[in-house]
Amino acid sequence: MEEKSVMKEILEWGYCIIIAIVLALLVRYYIGTPTIVQQQSMQTTFMPNDRLILSRITKTTKGTYERGDIITFEAPSTTYIPLSDVNNSYPVASYENEPEGLWNKFVYYVLEVGKTSYIKRIIGVAGDHIEIKNQEVYLNGEKLSEEYLDEGVKTDMGQYGVYSDIVVPEGYVFVMGDNREHSTDSRCFGCIPISKIEGKVWIRFWPFSKFGKVD
Questions:
Q1: CA-based nearest residue to 119, from 193, 58, 27, 36
Q2: Which residue has the higher pLDDT, 66 or 29?
């Protein structure tokens, strides 16, 4: 009897642990998840090692992303587009390394093992005409006011930029980092599919001195 009681207790604990793991994965995938900034492309809005919480509600509810939203997304398979492959009529990022098999997809998309993500700001949404000229960004023919940029920051095409005058296709967004000189973004690889957006930055919880909701 005593052995059965011990075995029953072990099984009950095992069930509790499994349920807790499943719930944690569901919350992480559908509601929100913590992340650490590892890149310098959003300085000084976010610095490397800042701790953030991403909201996945927009993705889960198939809501709408807006200009100015700071998002994370799966990195494209091709970071820099050769000039010979530039398609200004359909300027979209390439994703060719999709995992195969149910388990591999679970590991990649849910556990996010082996997955590279970028953090950027949405500059344009579907139908927007984006122009980069005179070291400024023009949105639908008007110079874009970007108060979130540090004073003196200019926007040019850098060494690898190829998309400077495009219309954002349906189902995509045009993104750039706030640290324009050190950001690999839609200027280089094209517009990002909304389906590849992982979440919208919601809260910064570290450093604690900057704790708060991110607008």
A1: 36
A2: 66
